[in-house]
Every structure is written in C-alpha cells, then in structure tokens.
From TrEMBL:
Highest taxon above the source species: Eukaryota
Name of this protein: Diacylglycerol kinase
Enzyme Commission designation: 2.7.1.107
CDD domains: C1_DGKiota_rpt2
Catalytic activity: a 1,2-diacyl-sn-glycerol + ATP = a 1,2-diacyl-sn-glycero-3-phosphate + ADP + H(+); 1-octadecanoyl-2-(5Z,8Z,11Z,14Z-eicosatetraenoyl)-sn-glycerol + ATP = 1-octadecanoyl-2-(5Z,8Z,11Z,14Z-eicosatetraenoyl)-sn-glycero-3-phosphate + ADP + H(+); 1,2-di-(9Z-octadecenoyl)-sn-glycerol + ATP = 1,2-di-(9Z-octadecenoyl)-sn-glycero-3-phosphate + ADP + H(+)
PANTHER family from the UniProt entry: DIACYLGLYCEROL KINASE (PTHR11255), DIACYLGLYCEROL KINASE IOTA (PTHR11255:SF92)
Subcellular location per the Swiss-Prot or TrEMBL entry: Cell membrane; Cell projection; Cytoplasm, Cytosol; Nucleus
GO biological process entries: glycerolipid metabolic process; phospholipase C-activating G protein-coupled receptor signaling pathway
Protein family (similarity comment): Belongs to the eukaryotic diacylglycerol kinase family.
GO molecular function: ATP binding; ATP-dependent diacylglycerol kinase activity
InterPro entries referenced in this protein's UniProt entry, alphabetically: ATP-NAD_kinase_N, C1_DGKiota_rpt2, DGK, Diacylglycerol_kin_accessory, Diacylglycerol_kinase_cat_dom, NAD/diacylglycerol_kinase_sf, PKC_DAG/PE
Principal location: membrane
Length: 514
C-alpha cells in the first residue's frame, strides 16, 4: 500500500501506521538491548540471534553464497531473506539455506563484536514496590515466549509506537586522543530514528546517580582483552544535519543503549554509568566543541584509566579532527569502516591547557570593570585567542544558540563566518587590541613587538591546524629559528595576526611567530 509508514533504527523493520498493531499479533519484538535483573532470570553470557524476515536484502546468503532477489518491499509479500539484526548474517528463506539449528544458536555479534556492548552486560534494576523512579516507562505487558519464528520473542510495550519516527516516503590507520517481563527475561522496544530521542535512551540516562539509588540500569561487564566497548555521542547541532543520519546508522550497527543524542542529554550520566567498563573507548560525533565538552566531563569524573576519544567530524572547522587524522568533515563514509578505525586506531597524547583569570593589579580601582573571573570553559584543546577571530567566533556561537534552525549545513555556517568576519573588518572593532594587552612568554616580554606590529588578533596555538585546516605556524623547511609544531610536545605556540595576515591565512600564508 501507499501510506505513511515508520522505520525502526535498531532492527530496520518498516511498518505502515495502520499495521503497527499487527506486530503484537505476530509476536515480533525488536532486538533486546538489556536483561532484567530478577533473580528468577538465570544470566546467559551469550546473545542469541535476532532473526527478522526481510523482503529486501543486500549481500549474499551465508549458506549458499548466492545473492538475494531484489524486489520492492511494499509491492511484494514474498520473504526473500532471514537476517540477524545483531550480526547481520543473512540466509535465503529456504529450508536448504536457513536451518532450524540457527534459531537458538548463540550470536557472535558480527564483525564489530569487539566494540558492541552486549545486552547481557546491561541489567535493569528491579524497582522496589511502591517506589517510583523518575523517568521510568510504562509497565511491560505480556509474557515471554520462547517460541516463535524469529527464535527470540519479547514482551510488548504498548507505548513504543510513539518512539518511532514517521516517514513520508511513499512508493518509492587513524589516531585517538587520550585524555518487565513477568518472568524476568529480556524486553525490547523499537527505537526512534531521530524525531525525538527514543524512550529507551531517555530512561537509560535520566536517573543515574552516584550511589546507585534510583538508577534504572547497572553495567556488569565481562572483562576480556579482546573487547573494546564503545560509547557513541552524537551532536546533531554540529555542522549540518548529518548527525540525524549518523545516529540512526550507529543504532543499527551497535546496541542502541551505547549510542546517545547530545541534544537530549549531556554525556555525564552515560560516562558515569559506564565508568567501570574495561577498555572503554569513546567516539565523539560532532565538532571540536563537542569533543571539548566530552573531555571536560572526563576531567570532572576522573575516570581511571582515561578512555581514548575518537572523532567523527560533523562540525564546521574540525581543526582537532584534522590534526588527529580523522579528516575535515564526514563525507558519508560507511559506518562499518568508521567502527573499524575506532577499534584499530592508535592512541596518542594530546596537550590540554588550563586558563587562569585574574584581575589586573596595575589598573586603578576606578577603572576596573565589573567582569566575571569565571570563564565558560577554563581548559582549551585547540587554541585560545584574543581579538578579531574570537569576536567572530563568539558572534557565530550566540547566533546559533538563538536560531539553531538557520545553521543546518556546513556551507551555511562557513558563509555566516565569512559575513561576520567582513562586518567586523569594516567596524575594525579589534584595531586597538595591541594597546590593551601584555604578553610574556618564558620570561620574555613580547608586548613591544605586539604594539609595533599592531596585531588585531593573538592566538595561543596548541595544535597545527587553525581556521578550518590552515597551518599558520608553517613548516620549518630551511628555517632553523623555530621547531615544527606538535600536539603532544608540552609547548604552546604564540602567533599574532595583523589584518593583512588574517586575510592572507585564507591563502595558506604563514602568520607572524612570536
């Protein structure tokens, strides 16, 4: 039929709105993402396959090696394949290909088993009778049944329809940076593709506490040197609208309970919940600001050891991602390939710097401004600047916070930067910067040089990349008066820009080194 339909990001079933009640009748459940903590539920240390009938299937049959006949899903009722939404194995819907023993056999979780958080690790805490947990979801209905075509069948939650996104479609080597069921079996609901955060994740994050009181889930990992569990944080506000698509794809390849939408909840609760998981790795999908946010939370939580953080660049400039060889922007690279990079990536060190703000003791009392000593962030990873570019960046940030819908593509963001920079250039708001700053580096007073050259921008540069990929420090080449820049050498480079050199940086010309 040609009608509105919805798609689950976790198991990729597509259902007409009017047909959603049929899922309960055929006893089909989404793949389980956790297990109940009831003592009546014996713990299984393995995951079973989650078999789903498919009318369309890419790839080849695991048994016979032949491809699948491609038909339009809503034009044919023929089931061409049976595939597992965990390990992605697929078989022809024939008795010669799909055997009965496949139904109950353990699932390997596929090519990315090392980074997937198995549902057997995530345990739902039984709610004490008469105690209400904030953010808890409606009770589960129905009993667990060990039978059924898929081999895995779970209680049905009547509220899952609201967690699906409506679709209007019709017929048609890399671097890291360091720093309730009545019987107590697994339950599962289908997951939203993006319209709102799926209830499963909201419940997962909302009520985590330091002392485990009121916490709906606990993590009980099984330590293994082969496991590198991954937490994925996606910021849909970064860059364009790529975050929406990325969130859906990671939910398909991983356990949805290890994928988090930062526009709904911050990273703190998730990191707190997973803090004792060995060999933990983190993937930050967003801009450099998103990465800095996650690193600041890791500082606050003082995780030991500190999990390495990989970057999927969804931002506008992505200077840190470029420095760590993750590229200048996400270009629809297959998520499976990204997960391989995260698993095999080399861990490297990254210098990070604290900022301390104090009032100027040499300024007369009557000239002191009523300003705050507390900065929004007192640690920087990329660079810290004063003057022209800082003003433009602040204007961009405030405008995006006020009107996020206008900043829905990387190209538009860059155009805004260009417009704001041109406007600030005409106003010359930073022309007198050199008269109001004093810079001392390693005991050397650089203020006279700054005043002589009349810098309109001073940058304390921690990484080689600046302003969407340019390298203002340059390369030593034949010059022996300065060293090449590194992000892990314990040094910070200080550079200055005149208005002419700010223009020249777009042509990849070096700035003036201090």
């Amino acid at each position: 039929k040609s009608a509105l339909r919805r798609k689950c990001a976790a198991c990729k079933i597509v259902v007409h709105n009017a047909c959603m009640e049929q899922l309960e009748k055929i006893n089909f459940r989404c793949k389980p993402t956790f297990r109940e903590g009831s003592s009546r539920s014996p713990r299984e240390n393995f995951v079973r396959h989650h078999w789903v009938h498919r009318r369309r299937q890419e790839g080849k049959c695991k048994q016979c090696g032949k491809g699948f006949q491609q038909k339009f899903s809503f034009h044919s009722k023929e089931i061409v394949a049976i595939s597992c939404s965990w390990c992605k194995l697929a078989f022809h819907n024939k008795v010669t290909c799909f055997m009965l023993h496949h139904i109950e056999e353990p699932c390997s979780l596929g090519a990315h088993a090392a980074v997937i958080v198995p549902p057997t690790w995530i345990i739902k805490v039984k709610k004490p009778q008469g105690v209400s947990i904030p953010g808890d979801e409606p009770d589960w209905a129905g009993d667990w049944s060990p039978e059924g075509e898929t081999g895995v069948s779970y209680p049905y939650w009547e509220g899952w329809q609201n967690s699906l996104k409506t679709s209007t479609r019709r017929k048609k080597r890399t671097s890291f940076k360091r720093k309730a069921s009545k019987r107590g079996n697994d339950v599962a609901e289908h997951h939203v593709t993006m319209a709102v955060l799926f209830p499963i994740s909201k419940l997962f994050l909302a009520v985590v506490s330091q002392d485990n009181k009121g916490r709906p889930f606990v993590i009980k990992p099984i330590s293994s040197p082969l496991m590198k569990p991954l937490l994925v944080f996606v910021n849909p506000k970064s860059g364009g609208n790529q975050g929406t698509k990325v969130l859906q794809m990671f939910m398909w390849y991983l356990n949805p309970r290890q994928v988090f939408d930062l526009s709904q909840e911050g990273p703190k609760d998730a990191l707190e919940l997973y803090r004792k998981v060995p060999n933990l790795r983190i993937l930050a999908c967003g801009g450099d600001g998103t990465v800095g946010w996650i690193l600041s939370i890791l500082d606050e939580l003082q995780l030991t050891p500190q999990p390495p953080v990989a970057v999927l660049p969804l931002g506008t400039g992505n200077d840190l991602a470029r420095t760590l060889n993750w590229g200048g922007g996400y270009t629809d690279e297959p998520v499976s390939k990204i997960l391989c990079h995260v698993e095999d990536g080399t861990i490297v060190q990254l210098d990070r710097w604290n900022l301390q703000v104090e009032r100027n003791p040499d300024l007369p009392q009557d000239e002191l401004e009523d300003g705050s000593r507390k900065l929004p962030l007192n640690v920087f990873n990329n660079y810290f600047s004063l003057g022209f570019d800082a003003h433009v960046t602040l204007e961009f940030h405030e405008s995006r916070e006020a009107n996020p819908e206008k900043f829905n593509s990387r190209f538009r963001n860059k155009m805004f930067y260009a417009g704001a920079a041109f406007s600030d250039f005409l106003q010359r708001s930073s022309r007198d910067l050199s008269k109001h700053v004093k810079v001392v580096c390693d005991g050397t007073d650089l203020t006279p040089k700054i005043q002589e050259l009349k810098f309109q921008c001073i940058v304390f540069l921690n990484i080689p990349r600046y302003c969407a990929g340019t390298m203002p420090w340059g390369n030593p080449g034949d010059h022996r008066d300065f060293e090449p820049q590194r992000h892990d050498d314990g040094y910070i480079e200080v550079i200055g820009f005149t208005m002419a050199s700010l223009v020249s940086i777009l042509q990849v010309l070096p700035c003036l080194r201090l």
